[in-house]
Amino acid sequence: MSNTSNEEISEAFLKLAQNELKVELIDKEVEQFKIKKMESVYNERDTLIEKIPSFWKIVLSQHLDFANYIRASDFKYIDAIEKITVKYASDIEKIGSFSITFHFNKIEGDLEEQIVTKNFKLVKIVSEDEEKKDAESDEESAEPEETLISDVCSIQWPKEYNSINPDLIEDKKSSEGKKNYRQGMKSFFGWFRWTGLKPGKEFPHGDSLATLFSEDLYPYCVKYYTEAQRDFEDEQSDSENSSEEGIELSEDEAEDEEPAQKKARTE
Amino acid sequence: MSNTSNEEISEAFLKLAQNELKVELIDKEVEQFKIKKMESVYNERDTLIEKIPSFWKIVLSQHLDFANYIRASDFKYIDAIEKITVKYASDIEKIGSFSITFHFNKIEGDLEEQIVTKNFKLVKIVSEDEEKKDAESDEESAEPEETLISDVCSIQWPKEYNSINPDLIEDKKSSEGKKNYRQGMKSFFGWFRWTGLKPGKEFPHGDSLATLFSEDLYPYCVKYYTEAQRDFEDEQSDSENSSEEGIELSEDEAEDEEPAQKKARTE
Question: Where are the transmembrane segments (chains A, B) (predicted)?
Answer without folding.
Answer: none
